[in-house]
Design goal:
The chain has 14 helices and no strands. The chain has 356 residues and is mostly helical.
Length: 356
């Protein structure tokens, strides 16, 4: 079953990237036009990333769980090759373009952190390994990809290695327990300056909830088929994250910081079976959803840099606020389309076949 073509999952992916785009675009609109910021839209950016994490955990988790049934280095190599052919070509293309364009455009801006050290940290996915988000505004959206890459690399190695000793089922339970409990315990013991799990050590558990749903879909398909019963508590947990966190955790800030992201991730994970059930859709709206979903990775990686460059030329007086917004929106359509046709699709065709 090719879950990449399930329409409900395309909807989830499109909603996720649009929430992030609206969040960041709204910030620049408030600066350019002097309008007040609407906080629910700003918070929507965090929700969008959480959807990406849970959805990614579900889709890729199905592959690595299957691989753990016959654990081998070959299976691990195929799994990682498929992952890297999907994520790394565009990531490093963006990194290369920014490494050249950023100092040329922002050469006089002291608040733009740039240098070989910054490039190296991004190249090796250590720009936010502990607590800090990527430096300044330079490719800061890469923080979430870093969390994902570390999760799949370490999680897959641990799972396949342990599966050779204790079997796939026990190995999955042990590794998932570590990845779900460890980050929450780490968040409880230390409170970062930005108050959100923007680092590898504090964010990988969000992806783990998607892997749990992947296990349910493969090993307990009857449970997975009861999507209505799962959707109801999922919606309630999502609502609790937004309106009832004070009631759930009271004045205990450490407990709130440690568990609140997991409340949201669990709620989103419980909604995935309902999304997976929505297999087909037709019409113009469905086509638009599929376009956004297919270009979501490029949209996510490039949109904030596009807005930064537009803001630079607007602040310099080369373009009006309306012109900057129009140029930025046009670029957000054109660049992902070019990326999909010229880079991402060719890279996907080079991926090895899925793990048996």
């Amino acid at each position: 079953m090719d879950h990449d073509r399930v329409f409900g999952l395309d909807v989830a992916r499109a909603v996720a990237v649009l929430l992030v785009l609206v969040c960041h675009t709204q910030y620049f609109i408030t600066l350019w036009f002097g309008v007040p910021q609407y906080l629910p839209l700003a918070y929507g950016g965090f929700l969008g990333v959480e959807i990406f994490f849970v959805l990614s955990g579900y889709l890729v988790g199905r592959i690595v769980i299957r691989a753990s049934a016959v654990p081998s280095f070959v299976n691990w190599r195929i799994f990682m090759a498929r992952r890297w052919w999907r994520t790394l070509p565009l990531y490093y293309a963006c990194l290369a373009v920014l490494a050249v364009a950023w100092p040329l455009v922002f050469y006089a801006s002291k608040d733009r952190d740039w240098g070989l050290g910054v490039i190296a940290r991004n190249a090796f996915f250590v720009q936010n390994f502990n607590w800090h988000v990527a430096e300044g505004n330079w490719f800061s959206v890469s923080w979430s990809l870093t969390v994902e890459e570390w999760f799949y690399g370490v999680f897959s190695v641990a799972l396949l290695a342990l599966a050779r000793v204790v079997g796939g089922g026990r190995a999955l339970a042990i590794v998932l327990a570590v990845f779900l409990v460890g980050p929450a315990a780490w968040r409880f013991s230390t409170e970062p300056f930005n108050g959100l799990p923007y680092s590898v050590l504090t964010g990988v558990d969000q992806i783990g909830f998607g892997v749990v749903v992947a296990w349910v879909s493969l090993r307990r398909p009857v449970w997975f088929g009861r999507w209505v019963l799962l959707l109801m508590p999922g919606v309630l947990l999502n609502a609790a994250f937004w309106v009832a966190l004070d009631w759930l955790f009271g004045a205990n800030r450490h407990m709130r910081f440690a568990l609140a992201p997991d409340v949201l991730a669990l709620g989103l994970a419980l909604c995935l079976p309902a999304c997976a059930r929505w297999r087909e859709a037709r019409g113009v709206a469905a086509g638009l959803v599929r376009w956004v979903s297919g270009r979501s990775y490029a949209l996510y990686l490039t949109h904030l840099s596009i807005l930064e460059f537009a803001a630079h030329y607007k602040d310099r007086g080369d373009i009006s606020a309306s012109g900057a917004l129009m140029v930025a929106l046009a670029a957000m359509v054109a660049i992902p389309e070019v990326s999909w046709r010229c880079l991402e699709s060719p890279a996907l065709r080079r991926r090895p076949r899925v793990v048996a």
